[in-house]
Design a protein that fits this description.
There is one protein chain. By secondary structure, this protein is mainly beta. Helices cover 5% and strands 36% of the residues. The protein is built from two helices and 14 strands. Strands 10-7-12-5-4-3-14 form a seven-stranded antiparallel β-sheet, with no helix packed on it. It is globular and about 50 Å long. The relative contact order is 0.21.
């Protein structure tokens, strides 16, 4: 029998501190402020990382990228839950809206940028890769125009994000404008 995981408060929100199944409401889950990037809800904890699949709920403000343009050795999939955003993919720009689904096989260059009158919410799912260095942040003229690209290709996350403010713990300052009941 699989036990229920223990959830404990942290500076980020509730995080699992033991292995097992659990439920958590997005309002109370672990969040980070993106600063230059989207605010993100992560459902795993440092003590209990998800071994096979990672999940993130990203809230992008208009003009705000989710992260930096990149490609990696694992499949990733995305579902736009509300609002509008731009998908920058393989040097092309696509406008997305609620309920658009995006599949990125391994090594697909991509990133999202908020685009619309209010926040955009994207549910992000990615397979865990065996080697965390098996990724590449790619210089892209298209992504640079949106503040979502490195100046020079790098495999090192720390180097890619060095010029940006770091994510800080806690939920977004406001859940206003989000269509799902987070109040």
């Amino acid at each position: 029998m699989v036990p229920e995981a223990r959830l404990e408060p942290s500076e980020y929100g509730l995080v699992p501190t033991t292995e097992g199944w659990f439920t958590v409401n997005v309002r109370e889950a672990a969040w980070v402020h993106g600063g230059s990037f989207a605010d993100s809800c992560v459902f795993e904890g440092e003590a209990v990382p998800f071994a096979e699949i990672g999940y993130t709920l990203a809230v992008l403000q208009p003009g705000q990228p989710s992260a930096l343009y990149h490609r990696e050795a694992s499949q990733e999939d995305f579902l736009v839950l509300s609002g509008a955003c731009l998908l920058l993919v393989e040097g092309e720009e696509r406008r997305l809206q609620a309920w658009d689904f995006v599949h990125c096989p391994a090594w697909t260059e991509h990133i999202f940028v908020g685009a619309g009158e209010g926040p955009c919410v994207v549910f992000m799912i990615g397979a865990r890769r065996a080697d965390p260095e098996d990724q590449l942040y790619v210089r892209s003229e298209l992504a640079l125009r949106h503040g979502a690209s490195v100046e020079a290709d790098t495999k090192v996350s720390r180097d890619a994000y060095a010029a940006f403010e770091r994510w800080s713990p806690g939920p977004p300052a406001s859940f206003d404008g989000l269509p799902w009941a987070l109040r």
